[in-house]
Specification:
The chain is of the alpha/beta class and 230 residues long. The protein is built from eight helices and seven strands, in the order H-H-H-E-H-E-H-E-E-H-E-H-H-E-E. It has a seven-stranded mixed beta sheet with strand order 3-2-1-4-5-7-6, sandwiched between helices. Helix 6 crosses helix 8.
Length: 230
């Protein structure tokens, strides 16, 4: 993944979440009524969030965790409620502002706008990235995991878009919409393909995929992965 490619993709995501999808994302991540399709996405995201949290220790006091691509902040707030010191970062200022507005005063989260790969964020015990890598191909994901893993003591939890017939069809249909209305294209990948990409990356020689779990809820399909030091 060239730096130019990563930056181009990052800016595309920022534009989408700050302009095109602001209101839809706000409603999806709230308790407001939504349509049947978005209700399945909401349920899937809730299940995925619960899955990732269940892979972390029950007591997170003293743990420093990066929520990479925090969105509207639901995951970061649950981690903070369990005692973690949470740094929550997203490329979208609009989403980070929404997260700040929703956060109870009693839960302290370090909300940041910026790049999840910024080394100035420091070191962590765990990194959690829910649906933040789904827009990148295998080699790109491997590099992202390697960069985050270099500053992570235990594990990097993340999700990818699994290569399924439904996701392939949804991706093809999405390309029919006018360019200005399209969501950024996801990059489906098989579990085997991702494992191979990680084996091919020199920086991940000491890492392995420890756990994997798929969540499928209507129009939400995502694969949880745990990268762990061997």
């Amino acid at each position: 993944m060239s730096n130019a490619t990563y930056l181009d993709r990052r800016e595309e995501l920022r534009t989408y979440f700050d302009r095109t999808a602001v209101e839809a994302w706000r409603r999806l991540t709230s308790n407001e009524p939504v349509g049947r399709i978005r209700a399945t996405v909401r349920a899937g995201r809730n299940e995925m969030r619960d899955t990732l949290i269940s892979w972390l220790p029950a007591d997170l006091r003293g743990a420093r965790i990066l929520d990479a691509g925090c969105g509207s902040g639901a995951l970061a707030l649950e981690l903070a409620a369990r005692g973690a010191e949470v740094v929550a970062i997203d490329i979208s200022p609009t989403l980070v502002n929404l997260a700040r507005e929703r956060a109870p005063q009693k839960l302290l989260v370090d909300w940041r706008v910026g790049d999840m790969l910024d080394p100035a964020l420091g070191a962590f015990d765990y990194v959690v990235a829910m649906d933040s890598f789904i827009y990148y191909h295998g080699a790109d994901i491997a590099r992202i995991v390697a960069e985050l893993g270099a500053r992570t003591a235990n594990s990097v939890l993340f999700t990818v878009a699994p290569r399924t017939t439904l996701l392939t069809l949804m991706h093809a249909v999405g390309r029919l919409f006018p360019r200005g209305d399209r969501a950024p294209a996801i990059a489906p990948i098989s579990e085997r393909g991702l494992a191979q990409a990680m084996r091919n990356h020199q920086g991940l020689a000491a890492w392995r995929i420890a756990r994997s779990h798929r969540v499928a809820s209507g129009f939400y399909i995502s694969q949880a992965m745990e990268a762990q030091r061997s």
